Amino acid sequence: MPRRDPKPNGSGALRQVLKTAFVFLGIALLVYLVADMGAATILAQLSRFGWWFGAICILGAAWLFFQTLSWQTMQRERFRGAPLLYLFNVKLISDALNALLPSANLGGEAARLQLTAGFLSKKEALAGIMVDKTFEYGAGIPFMVLGFLVAWAGGYFPRPLVLPAVLCLLISLAGILIFAALQLKGMHPVLSVFGRWLPPLRRFIAAQERQIRSFGVQLVRLYRAPRSRLLAAWSWHFLARMTGVLETILIMHVLGSPVSFGRALFITAMVAGINTVFFLMPGQWGIAEGSHLFILHSMGYPPLIGLSMGIIKRIRKLAFAAVGMALYAHYRGARGRAAGLRMRHG
Question: Is it the case that residue 176 has pLDDT exceeding 80?
Fold first, then answer.
């Protein structure tokens, strides 16, 4: 009998369309904000940076380096043969793809799976990435709380930001607790509960039960690591967020509106909260720039300052994305050449 072509996945196609639409909506929002403020005015602000942009890139690289250390810490046994520079490059590639692809922060994680195949099995790599993302967002909770408390104690917590801050904190906390609970239970028991009401999920669990249980074992194994290791991994992510505070201080200084460490901590914490809530928005196009404008304007700064900060951070991300994509092309080319040699000599 002739083989039938599989039916197209309508839900998958719809999700891709929606993701792409969100990217264009975000870019449209960014274009509107720039046009409303005046492109020439914004360019005049950005021209202030000059060589200071190099310092911003160093702080951005420090952020990624600390995140890499956290990832390496959780899987140090498997990563013993992996040079730290290589893992840093993989993290840079991952962030580049997340920033450029309409994949809701998933395309870059797929690259992490691919580029660590020489050190980890797919289940080990995926489990490590899930735990790493949990710790990344988990470090954001106390970071936000600290920023909000410092602002409240200092008397510069703007009243219009109280409700958004509380909502961001509650949504982030609920999301991270659910995500962590799903992993700590080994996934299969939790998925089975949802499968009772969702027949497609129930069929998927039945077909992939062995793989799901095996993957759950990998997750639980990581969480049963010594507490010192778990604390170290979490601390690296918290330290990474603190480099964002230094970046805020530097950018505000260059823009001619210096801020104290406490105010910079609050600004960075608010931006982190909004970005966490909208983490499914690919690249946070428009959202990140708009949130900077809204937060700083609520604190009494001119809208131009907030938008300029958002844009200079976007430029830094795009510069990193260019480097990341060049590295990705290099590693893929090297893997392709190695595979070709194996085929010729196999």
Answer: yes
Question: What string of DSSP letters covers 225-265?
Answer: S-HHHHHHHHHHHHHHHHHHHHHHHHHHHHTT----HHHHH
> What's the Rg (C-alpha) of the chain?
22
Return d(Cα 210, Cα 322) in angstroms, integer. Answer: 40
CB atoms within 10 A of CB 179: 15
- Phi–psi pair at 259, nearest 5 degrees: -130, 155
Which stretch, 166-180, 237-251, 296-310, has highest mean pLDDT?
237-251
pLDDT value at residue 109:
80
Dihedral sign, Cα of residue 288, residue 293, residue 294, residue 296: positive
CA angle 97, 101, 105 (to 5 degrees): 70
CA separation for the pair 6, 16 (Å, rounded): 18
DSSP structural state of residue 5:
P
| DSSP symbol at 50 | T
Share the mean pLDDT of the chain.
Answer: 79
Contact 42, 34 (CB under 8 A): yes
Give CA angle at 238 (241, 312), nearest 5°. 5
- Distance, in Å, from the CA atom of 139 to the CA atom of 136, rounded to the nearest integer, reads 5
Of 251, 280, 231, the closest CA to residue 21 belongs to: 280
How many other CB atoms sit within 10 Å of the CB of residue 263? Answer: 23
Residues 6+ apart with CB under 8 A from 314: 30, 288, 289
What gap in Å lies between CA 264 and CA 63, rounded to an integer?
16
For the CA atoms of 97, 103, 108, 111, what is the dihedral angle to 10 degrees?
-110
- Cβ atoms within 10 Å, residue 342: 9
CA distances from 186 to 111, 149, 174, 222 (A): 24, 35, 19, 11
Contact yes or no for 266/156 (Cβ under 8 A): yes
CA–centroid distance for 287 within its chain: 14
Residue 2's pLDDT is: 43
